[in-house]
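Following up on my earlier thread - several people asked me to post the actual chain instead of describing it. Fair enough. Here it is, all 80 residues.
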Amino acid sequence: MRQVGTFEAKNRLSALIELVQAGEEIEITRNGKPVARLVPTTGRDVSRAREAAEVLRAIRAQARTGPESLKDLVNLGRRY
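Reply from S.P.:
Thanks for posting it. Predicted structure:
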């Protein structure tokens, strides 16, 4: 794995991204200590995000709806 400092990473980001697209992993360091890693994404990441979005949509569709407006919420709070 290639290591680059934060200054070099900032100045050469486009070139580093090309290396990552080619499959290489790059570790970014600050004062010699690792702080970040550039890694290629996979098609699985996209499919997992889509699955999560579908689950959230289903949960939202099943959620009970409450009062329609702020006024309704205030009035509901005044009852108790």
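Strands lie at 2-5, 26-30, 33-38. That should answer part of your original question.
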